[in-house]
Please model this.
Amino acid sequence: MSHAKSLDQLEQKQDFIRRHIGPDAAQTATMLAELNVSSVEELIAQTVPASIRLEQGLTVGESRTEVEALSYLKSVVSKNKLYKSYIGQGYHPTLVPNVILRNVLENPGWYTAYTPYQPEIAQGRLESLLNFQTLSIDLSGLDLASASLLDESTAAAEAMALAKRVAKAKKANIFFIADDVHTQTIDVVATRADQFGFEVVVAPAADVANHEIFGALFQYPSTSGEIVDVQGLIETVHSKKAIACVAADIMSLLLLKSPGSLGADVVLGSAQRFGVPMGYGGPHAAFFATRDEYKRSLPGRIIGISKDRLGNDALRMAMQTREQHIRREKANSNICTAQVLLANMAAFYAVYHGPQGLKVIAERIHRFADILAAGLQAKGVSLKHNTWFDTITLTQNKDEIVARGLAAEINFATNHDGELSISVNEETTRADIAQLFDVILGEGHGLDVAALDATITANGSESIPAGLVRDDAILTHPNFNSYHSETEMLRYIKRLENKDLSLNHSMISLGSCTMKLNATAEMIPVTWPEIANLHPFCPLDQAEGYQIMINELHDWLVNITGYDAVSMQPNSGAQGEYAGLIAIRKYHESRGDAHRNVCLIPSSAHGTNPASAQMASMKVVVVACDKNGNIDMADLKAKAESVAENLSCIMVTYPSTHGIYEQNIKEVCDIVHQHGGQVYMDGANMNAQVGVTSPGSIGSDVSHLNLHKTFCIPHGGGGPGVGPIGVKSHLAPFMPNHSVINVPGTTKGNGAVSAAPYGSAAILPISWAYITMMGSEGLKQATEMAIVNANYLTEKLSKHYPILYRGQNNRIAHECIVDLRPLKEASGITEMDVAKRLQDYGFHSPTMSFPVAGTLMIEPTESENKVEIDRFIEAMVSIKGEIDKIINGEWTIDNNPLVFAPHTQGDVLGNEWDRAYDRFYAAFPVPAVAKNKFWPTVTRIDDVYGDRNLICSCPPVDSYAE
Model:
């Protein structure tokens, strides 16, 4: 009898599933035996309530091979038309230095790292983010900058919120926006203002004098290109005891006086044109700077300089008490996602070119704008303004010029009535200017680019007013003046990368954050020109490939979630929460129930939940949890009944934040619906739902989906993220639209929540590729194996540590919570000590003190095989042995490897050693560590010192000595 494999087997159509899921059949069988079950199906039956399990499987199709998926996607996105883009309005073609493209954007050492909550093993990206903050501070002319926000428009909305918090004009409720601010920014800010109950006035900038305001926003240069001296406008704002905010073009600030020097209180903008592709709208990093006196109200993260245990300078996230998971509804913002990977790219772009190189790029862009303007004026074309940096606006023959442009595969900005704007950029060449002359004037115009340049060079240019020409020194720190050859730049990037632990070192077991495989095949399309080089405001018919891919992803997510429609616009999970709550609020308003403003939130919820509810002007009522971590049903019923008349919704996470499948989840939904509310199901734990259950089938009305968790977009060292929302049909009319590009399938007039119509569109192919290569069967297997791995890890750890919560049949979902509080009471060792000691074993800490203080929440994901999970278990068991030595008196509480952890090379090799344990054990506590040792580069960091001595820009270069 033949034992030859069939052709189906040889074709390996499902090989990607095997690559994505860590444990093989033998490892799976061993783990199941440890759990005393005979099959995966038996474990799922014991774990997931029968009442919520799907009767029908997913229908996203059979799995594709990597070759098939990429070949098909290439054929789809090839339908995109890569016209020359002169649209501008916050998005510009840029030249990504190849050394940054290959070694940062395409490098898993940079894109698979987690948010730097464990700074000792994140000093590389923290230094790069400090460079970004220094760049933001220098160019803005202000005192303090964040480590990035989601996009320019979102940053402007955050500026409005800051203005309301800090302005002395306490009785004012008007936020003024100049009518020459970018259209999408007006849209996003107006949406946010509506939720806060602020009044927005959009009018010519000079009209700011006529309103009693708490803040105002100006664009510098304006969306149509004019360079306005905003100093007088800012003085008017200040005379009203209000806050002046300026949205600025980052490239122009190399030539223009900083808004801070003109009096601005907040300066913000997009860093996209510093070496980050347009990507059909994102992801891009926004910069945000303000005065030192407003530092406690600054949204987002701040990187600061502190000291480690040995007195060395060490970087960390400063003022972490502002973080949303701690402050909840009192948080400055619900935005807990920065755009770290993109901020790092922009920072490296500035480091690579340096201040002089950046200025040359800005001067070249400005010169091309001058040449274009001079040629057109010489031929009798009138321009709307007589000042500009890179953008000129025409007010005649618009339709004719636009038609000729499209015929020549050129896009202009056309969204203002009767006007056409042309924004030149870093990619613009002499030939491009000559082509623009042909399109606008017709051939035979006789203009010569070189001759026009010679005239401008000889006579100078007045398109930047003399009083607004920048004359101060910027980017003087050695980091921006040392790495201009590719050799030095490559080594600098690598030196920083080596300081950071990421998924290419070891498993990152963060509960709720789902640090799973980000497959290379999923990442490859991100930098294809067809994906990377489209402007988000190009006509839809030029983005046909994007539309096909987005529609396919939409339909798959509808099938996976059990919802009826999905919006791709929210560009973080927190933005998804916000968009979902807006949909709920507008739904109630449409039914005459505008008074419904109470949001029930379990005490175990993510900190962004109450912060998002506050941003939607909802009143948070906390629902208790019982001793087993479940929602207290009696308390829920009582609270729902007591607020029934005003109940808007409940925000609930499933499986719960405590890592279990609550048995009563359908009843929770029913109770809320019975009292007129909607159910918002946080999608953070979708990795335990896909293919097994779904929020729509459980009874939820809306969810956000963290594509950077369940659907494989990498965390990027703390961003990007994508948080699309899925909704039932009755909420679909209230999903976000966009004022520049109408999003098909949404209602006209709906406000935007993000700057671009499809948010961070350039990374949607990652999730598209994951779903299509896994197929219906693979997606379900991923969920099942996440449950297997988590229960195996829990079973092994439970012999050494208390497990805080368990669900039915003593099972957990995809994550478990290890309770360290009894050990702390017995030994004095804290969860922080355990987290830092894990670094010596080569691991990132699990999620610390969330959702319960004094605990570690651990999620192995389906991508880790048994060998790696066992290595992590070995580390945790070894650490438990170390704690036992303290309990039994062998080590004292102030002299043991946990309190001195982590141990750097300098620490271990130093001249003095007065520890109760030997040097070798400090660094190599188990044999496995020696095979692939990761060395933290600083010892334990002093958070208190850092907050008392807040320094958030680059320190002297000698402090970087290795």
About this structure: The CA atoms of residues 76 and 548 lie 7 Å apart. The longest strand covers residues 213-220. The two ends are 66 Å apart (CA to CA). The chain has 34 helices and 23 strands.
